[in-house]
C-alpha cells in the first residue's frame, strides 16, 4: 500500500490556534462537492452499508458513461460526413471520455484519495482558528463558492439545453417524426409512445449524471487547492505574529534574560510552524501524485473543447435552443479554466510567500546562545525550503498557473483558425464542383 498523508496536527502554543476537530458552518462549495462525489461513487464510506451504496453508484456511473460512449460513437458513424453534426457529437464523446479518464485515475489512487479527504476534513474543514485566521479562510471560502456556483449553473444550463432542443423541435410533429436528445439509429419505432418517453427519460438521466460527474472532480480539486493556499497564508500570519510576544515584554527591560526567554518562546512556536509547513508540503506532494495525470488531461481537453464549441457557436448552423446551450457551455468551460488555473496559481504564490514571512520575524534580536543559534538555523532552513514553491504539474511537463490559461486559450484559437480555414476550403471545393 502506498504511503498516505501523515497524521499531523497543526498546533502552536496558543489554544486559539490549535487545529482540533470542531463543528462549524461549512461554506456551500463543500456540501455541493461532497454530494456530487457521493453520486459518482468516489467518497469514503463510514460503514459497510455506505460502502455498498458507493460501489453501486460507481458501477452505475461507469455504465452510464459507457452507454453514452457507445451511443455517441454510433451517432458519429452514421452522421459522417456532416461536419457540424460530427463536431457536436465529438464534443459529447470528449465529455464522456474525460470523465471516464478521471474516474480511472482516482480509482487507481483511491486509498490515497480517501486518506486525503479524511485529512482535509480533520485539519482544514473542522478546526478552530482565531479571528484573523477565520477572515483569511472566509475569503477563500467565498471564492470557492463563487467558482462552484457559476460552474454548476452553467453546466446545468447546458444539460437543460439537451432536453429543451428536442422538445422544441418536436412541436407540431407526429409520433413517427419525433426526435430524441440523441439519435439511437435503431430499426425500432423510437418515436412512438411509450417507447419515446422511456428513452427520453433514460437519456436525460444519463445527461444529468454526466453533468454531475463532469464538474465534481474539478470542484474538489479547486477546493483542495484554495484551502491549502489558505493554510499557507495562515502559516504566514502565524510566522509574522511571532513579534506579538515582544510587544508583551516591552514593559520588561531588554536584558539578556528577557531576550532569552523571548527566544525560547519563539523557538517553541517556530517548531510548531515548521511542523505545519512540513505537513502542508507533504499534502501538496500527495495532491501532485493523485492529480498530476488529471491535470495533464484537463489542459489538453480544455484546449480542444474551447475550439470545438467555438466552431459550433460562430461557424456552424445550429438551432437557437442549442445555441443558448452552447453559449452556456462556453461560459462553463471558461469558468472551469479560470477556476482550475487560478487555484493552482494561488497554491504557488502562497507557498512562495512563506519565505518572506519567516524572514520578517524578529530573528536578528535573539542572543547568540544555543537557543538563538538553533532558531536562526531553523529559520534559514525554512527559508531555503520555500525557494521551491509547491505546485501542481501536468504530469511533470510544466507547472499549472494563470499563465497556463493564456496558453490554453492561445492553443484553442490556433485550432479554431485551422478548423475555420478547413471549413472554408471545403465550402469552396463544394462550390467549384
Description:
- It is a single chain.
- 75% of the residues lie in helices and 0% in strands.
- The protein has helices spanning 29-40, 48-79, 83-108, 110-125, 131-169, 195-240, 244-248, 256-314, 320-359, 370-386, 402-432.
- The longest helix is centred in the middle third of the chain and has 59 residues, at 256-314.
- The protein starts with 28 loop residues before the first helix and ends with a helix.
What amount of the residues lies in strands?
under 5%
- Oligomeric category: single chain
Shape: elongated
Per DSSP E runs of 2 or more residues, the count of β-strands stands at 0
Identify low-pLDDT runs: 1-24, 249-253
Mean pLDDT: 83
- Sketch the major β-sheet: none
* SSE order: HHHHHHHHHHH
If helices are DSSP runs of H or I spanning 4 or more residues, what is the number of helices?
11
Fraction of residues in helices? Answer: over 70%
Rg calc:
27 Å
End-to-end C-alpha gap: 64 Å
Based on helices, strands and strand pairing, what is the structural class?
Answer: mainly alpha
Amino acid at each position: 500500500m502506498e504511503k498516505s498523508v501523515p497524521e499531523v496536527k497543526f498546533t502552536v502554543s496558543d489554544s486559539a490556534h490549535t487545529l482540533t476537530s470542531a463543528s462549524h458552518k461549512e461554506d456551500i462549495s463543500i456540501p455541493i462537492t461532497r454530494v456530487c462525489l457521493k453520486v459518482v461513487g468516489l467518497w469514503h464510506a463510514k460503514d459497510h452499508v455506505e460502502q455498498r451504496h458507493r460501489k453501486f453508484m460507481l458501477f452505475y456511473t461507469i455504465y452510464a458513461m459507457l452507454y453514452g460512449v457507445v451511443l455517441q460513437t454510433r451517432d458519429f458513424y452514421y452522421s459522417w460526413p456532416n461536419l457540424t453534426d460530427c463536431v457536436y457529437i465529438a464534443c459529447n464523446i470528449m465529455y464522456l471520455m474525460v470523465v471516464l479518464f478521471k474516474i480511472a485515475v482516482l480509482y487507481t489512487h483511491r486509498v490515497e484519495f480517501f486518506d486525503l479527504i479524511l485529512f482535509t476534513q480533520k485539519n482544514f474543514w473542522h478546526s478552530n482558528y482565531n479571528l484573523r485566521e477565520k477572515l483569511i479562510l472566509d475569503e477563500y471560502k467565498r471564492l470557492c463558492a463563487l467558482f462552484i456556483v457559476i460552474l454548476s449553473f452553467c453546466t446545468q444550463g447546458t444539460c437543460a439545453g439537451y432536453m429543451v432542443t428536442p422538445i422544441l423541435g418536436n412541436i407540431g410533429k407526429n409520433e413517427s417524426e419525433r426526435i430524441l436528445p440523441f439519435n439511437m439509429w435503431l430499426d425500432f419505432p423510437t418515436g412512438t409512445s411509450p417507447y419515446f418517453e422511456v428513452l427520453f427519460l433514460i437519456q436525460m438521466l444519463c445527461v444529468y449524471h454526466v453533468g454531475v460527474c463532469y464538474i465534481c472532480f474539478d470542484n474538489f480539486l479547486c477546493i483542495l487547492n484554495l484551502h491549502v493556499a489558505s493554510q499557507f497564508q495562515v502559516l504566514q500570519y502565524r510566522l509574522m505574529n511571532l513579534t506579538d510576544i515582544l510587544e508583551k515584554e516591552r514593559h520588561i527591560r531588554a536584558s539578556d534574560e528577557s531576550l532569552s526567554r523571548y527566544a525560547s518562546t519563539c523557538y517553541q512556536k517556530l517548531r510548531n510552524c515548521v511542523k505545519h509547513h512540513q505537513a502542508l508540503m507533504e499534502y501538496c506532494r500527495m495532491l501532485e501524485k493523485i492529480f498530476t495525470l488529471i491535470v495533464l488531461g484537463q489542459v489538453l481537453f480544455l484546449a480542444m473543447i474551447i475550439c470545438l464549441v467555438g466552431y459550433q457557436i460562430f461557424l456552424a448552423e445550429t438551432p437557437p435552443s442549442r445555441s443558448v446551450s452552447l453559449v452556456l457551455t462556453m461560459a462553463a468551460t471558461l469558468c472551469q479554466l479560470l477556476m482550475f488555473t487560478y487555484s493552482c496559481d494561488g497554491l504557488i504564490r502562497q507557498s512562495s510567500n512563506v519565505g518572506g514571512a519567516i524572514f520578517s520575524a524578529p530573528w536578528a534580536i535573539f542572543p547568540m546562545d544555543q537557543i538563538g543559534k538553533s532558531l536562526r538555523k531553523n529559520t534559514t532552513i525554512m527559508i531555503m525550503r520555500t525557494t521551491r514553491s509547491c505546485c501542481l504539474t501536468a504530469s511533470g511537463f510544466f507547472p499549472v498557473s494563470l499563465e497556463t490559461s493564456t496558453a490554453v486559450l492561445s492553443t484553442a484559437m490556433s485550432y479554431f483558425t485551422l478548423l475555420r480555414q478547413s471549413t472554408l476550403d471545403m465550402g469552396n471545393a463544394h462550390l467549384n464542383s
